[in-house]
Amino acid sequence: LKDDVFIHCNHAALDCLKADYPEVIGQKPYLISPPCQPDGTPSEVKAMQFIHEANEKGHVKFEWVHRRKDVSDFWVEVTLIRILLDGEPHLYTTWHDVTEQKLAEETLRMSEEKFRTSIEWMSEGFVLVDEVSFVIEWNHAIENITGVPRSEAMGTPIVELQASLLFPEQRKPEKVQALRNLVNRVLQTGKLPAKTSAVETQM
Predict the structure, then answer these.
(1) Computed over its alpha carbons, how large is the radius of gyration of the chain?
(2) Which terminus of the chain, N or C, has less C-beta within 10 A?
């Protein structure tokens, strides 16, 4: 880049854009991009912000959506590095195509949303804990069963919740420890022991 326009590119860049050399040279980056980037910022505004930052700091790395002449979009990780060429300031630009990674992330996000929606409205109580036993999902049915709102359950150790739901006469240190041991065994093995008392699993 010189004076904010492309003055040279290699065949890899042309392949990404599915364009010919004359169609790219002399173009400003935001003119081969959709009108706005995914965050809603106009491409022209955002491009000039990154160009200014690269000129000020010497380099910058960011993700960007470009648009081919067939109007299909693709993601790239862009690196801009300020250099001197024949005594003139330029921005050396590299692209790393991350379109497949972005598509995979979006697929995962949609899958997670579908999963959360399905468990939220299932009739059975559903609880999900992370690898250290903190609650990360607590659906509507389990709210009704236990009387514990989701806002209170999220981020709480499951043993604490289980212990608080035991009958008063069962809320003894040895019972709480038994619950803790059970949770630890399940987290370590991924399986519920075959012989588990009703008190140990009660909520």
Answers:
(1) 28
(2) C
Q: Is 133 left (phi over 0), alpha (psi -120 to 50) or beta?
A: left
196 phi and psi angles, rounded to 5 deg: -130, 130
H helical segments located in 82-121 = 99-120
pTM across the whole model: 0.60
Q: Distance (Å, rounded) from C-alpha 65 to C-alpha 174?
A: 58
E strand or H helix that includes residue 153: helix 150-153
Contact between 125 and 108 (Cβ < 8 Å): no
For the stretch 161-173, pLDDT in tens is: 888 887 777 777 8
List the Cα angle 188/192/196 in 5-degree steps. Answer: 125
Which ranges of the chain have pLDDT less than 50? Answer: 198-203
What number of other Cβ atoms are within 10 A of residue 46's Cβ?
19
User: Mapping DSSP to helix (H, G, I), strand (E, B) and coil, where does residue 162 land?
Assistant: helix
pLDDT of residue 38: 93
Whole-angstrom Cα distance, residue 116 to residue 19? 42
To which H or E segment does residue 178 belong? helix 173-189
Locate tokens 């050399």: which residue? 21
